[in-house]
Design a protein that fits this description.
11 helices; 2 domains; alpha+beta; elongated; 514 residues; six-stranded mixed sheet; 33% strand
């Protein structure tokens, strides 16, 4: 999205006249009404909640402290506070959060209706540039945030003071003053996730969170569950950072013809040509990074790809004061990425495995912000793609007796959560060298003495209209996991395979799970 130069210049002049270090830009009431002329009932409800919340934050330091404390927990891997989880919390004077907010509504049923219509209503504490405001730096005794909310009808952000005065922050600008955002949470939904015992015996019951009144919410995936975070590691592995079995597979097949995963999953080597499948290992995405258009400013091109939706409150591009810069979207928090693994099953019924992971702008890009003049809101004028973001994202146990010898992985940046279904047809190979030797075993290296079986199979896969599709990669069971070793100043290092698509690169490796 490009911003007209005259409009951008006029905007900056307006801000120069109205802003100081302690006074943010404001627009008159008629402008607010024009902006909201296409709003719907839900927008008005969000606005009403924001007005009440702004007054409550100003009047009660204990509420501010509660929001800060809950935001720092990052329960969904962002600085989000789910309103439903805190509404019954007692603050220092013995009043619940809900009772406090209710006192700012004229209609007793209005808050109740908002709670019903917005079960995932969330208070987001943004991390603003140059340390101007964040959950960790928030001085709850002296800093009273304004309250923002956004709509699908415009990229501008509406903000409310504790006095009830309203103003808009233009899409090209990022606040340099305390502000929190009222939004809907895209990482959780209502309801209890059904307990599912996997083949490895793990019960998938960890992604449910419950409110005090018993109401349950489920994360879209474990990757959004902040209580399940794993420790980061490096892209290039030291010997103590990579499973010994992967090193053994690399050493065995470094001079012999064979597949690393044969040894990892079946304990098959040239000296032991048959073995039964082990559930000790599971495929994981271990690293992710974005890729830009070659020969261009790849940071701008990559961000333009993942943040191009109308009404999406993230960084977009425009002209500010005559310079190409980024139109800000500070109010929406982390990105969500959807991973679809297309597994062709031997029984002819296709399987799609779907998972998610979050990433902040600072994990994906090196960001530089500037201020046109002292006290003005920030603008972003430089983006550079960072290196790999570490992930520990589990996928599936790759049993060749069940699944084809190649899989397809597609990644999308999530803008909406409504799915439709389409058909994906692929020609894939299945291993046929399995037999009973007391137990079911894979017999022989690779595809064995018999030829592999080639089939055309169909998968019903989900598709989300409006999501930004970043591309797809093909992973083969036969792909070497470790590609080579080299000596660094810190000693021996192992390098693993990278798969590249148009807009991203990932590493997929078997990891020990039990």
């Amino acid at each position: 999205m490009r911003i007209n130069l005259k409009i951008a210049f006029a905007t900056l002049i307006l801000f120069a006249l109205t802003i100081s270090c302690n006074d943010e830009p404001s627009l008159d009431r008629r402008h607010i009404q024009d902006k909201l002329s296409n709003s719907n009932t839900k927008t008005e409800q969000k606005r009403a909640f924001a007005k009440a919340f702004a007054k409550a934050l100003a009047d009660n330091s204990q509420l501010r402290e509660l929001i800060k404390r809950e935001a720092l927990k990052m329960f969904d891997n962002d600085y989000d506070v789910l309103y439903y989880l805190i509404k019954d919390e007692q603050i220092a004077d013995g009043t619940s959060v809900r009772s406090l907010l209710q006192s700012y509504f004229k209609n007793a049923d209005e808050l109740k209706q908002i709670e019903s219509d917005f079960p995932t209503l969330t208070i987001f504490v943004p991390e603003l540039p140059n340390g101007s405001f964040s959950a960790s730096s928030w001085d709850t005794q002296s800093e009273i945030p304004h309250v923002a909310y956004n709509t699908r009808s415009t990229n501008d952000v509406f903000i409310i003071k504790e006095t009830g005065e309203e103003y808009t922050l233009e899409a090209s600008l990022i606040p340099n003053f305390p502000v929190v955002v009222i939004k809907e949470n895209e990482r959780i939904t209502e309801g209890v996730r059904i307990e599912n015992e996997t083949k490895s015996g793990r019960k998938d019951i960890l992604n449910v969170v419950r409110a005090k009144d018993g109401k349950s919410f489920k994360f879209l995936h474990d990757s959004f569950n902040g209580s399940l975070n794993s420790t980061n590691t490096a892209r290039i592995y030291a010997p103590n950072q990579i499973d010994q079995r992967l090193i053994e597979a690399f050493n065995i097949y470094g001079t012999s013809d064979g597949w690393h995963r044969d040894y990892i999953y079946y304990n098959i080597s040239p000296s032991t040509p048959s073995g039964s499948f082990s559930y000790d290992f599971q495929e994981h995405i271990t690293f992710f990074s974005l890729r830009g258009v070659p020969g261009s400013d790849n940071g701008f091109s990559a961000y333009s790809k993942i943040a191009d939706q109308a009404g999406e409150q993230r960084y977009r591009f425009g002209l500010v004061n005559g310079y190409r810069s980024v139109v800000s979207g500070w109010s929406d928090g982390f990105f969500e990425f959807k991973v679809k693994v297309l597994l062709n099953a031997k029984n002819g019924i296709g399987t799609e495995f779907v998972t998610f992971f979050p990433a902040s702008i600072n994990e994906l890009f090196r960001v530089r912000s500037t201020q046109p003049y002292s006290g003005a809101p920030f603008t972003i004028n430089s983006l550079r793609i960072r290196g790999d973001k570490y992930l520990n994202l589990p996928l599936f146990n790759w049993d060749l007796n069940q699944y084809a010898s190649s899989i397809k992985i597609e990644i999308e940046e999530v803008d909406r959560i409504e799915n439709t279904t389409i058909t994906d047809t692929r020609t894939v190979q299945f291993a046929t060298n399995f037999g009973i030797e007391g137990v079911l075993k894979k017999i022989g290296l690779k595809f064995g003495a018999s030829l592999e079986e080639t089939r055309t199979t169909t998968i019903q896969k989900s598709y989300t209209e409006g999501n930004d599709e970043l591309g797809a990669v093909i992973i083969n069971f036969a792909d070497n996991v470790i590609l080579n070793t080299f000596n660094s100043v810190d000693g021996l290092r192992y390098s693993t395979r990278e798969y590249q698509a148009g807009w991203f690169a990932i590493s997929v490796e078997p990891k020990r799970v039990q």
